User: Fold this.
Amino acid sequence: MKGDIVGIQNREELPKRLRTETDERVRTRLIFLNAMGNHDISYEKASDICGLSLSTGYVWIRKWNAEGYEGLKDKETRTGRPPRLNDENMSKLEEILKSKAYWTTKEVIMEIKAHFDVDLSEDQTIKILRNKFQMLFSKPYPMDYRKPANAEALLDNQLDLVLFLLKEKGIKEEEIAIGFIDEARP
Assistant:
């Protein structure tokens, strides 16, 4: 009840359990209970040392008193809100994302809406991309809209032509140095 002082039962069992405990989460709970029960540290100080709120400490004390050591362990199945995209949807989304070299977050949000009829926030989408798919964020290289589709082939042809014309004039290949000038800048 609210306002009642909650004491710790079975104090002598705490140091024994603490020496053999391997689970870090349970170990922190045992340290908290042992500090209060066997070392006369105040509740507030023990809570502060373990980095937990006062209400959480009371929950652990009540669980220890009611269920003993088993009460401090995490339950196997934790309930919570189910994910909006299940594992099957995540694997489908991964395949969709592989179809294109780079994506914007807004494009991914629209793809998720179109394929799975799920509205995700931009922050949630970013978390999925980073944590689930290990995708990195970077500014994409700007594509010049004036660049022809076959720019590489045009450059190769132009270089071959210039090299041929220079050789025709009698200039040896070792004497030729080709440089590039950006015609867009003065």
In short: Residues 13-72 form one domain. The two ends are 81 Å apart (CA to CA).
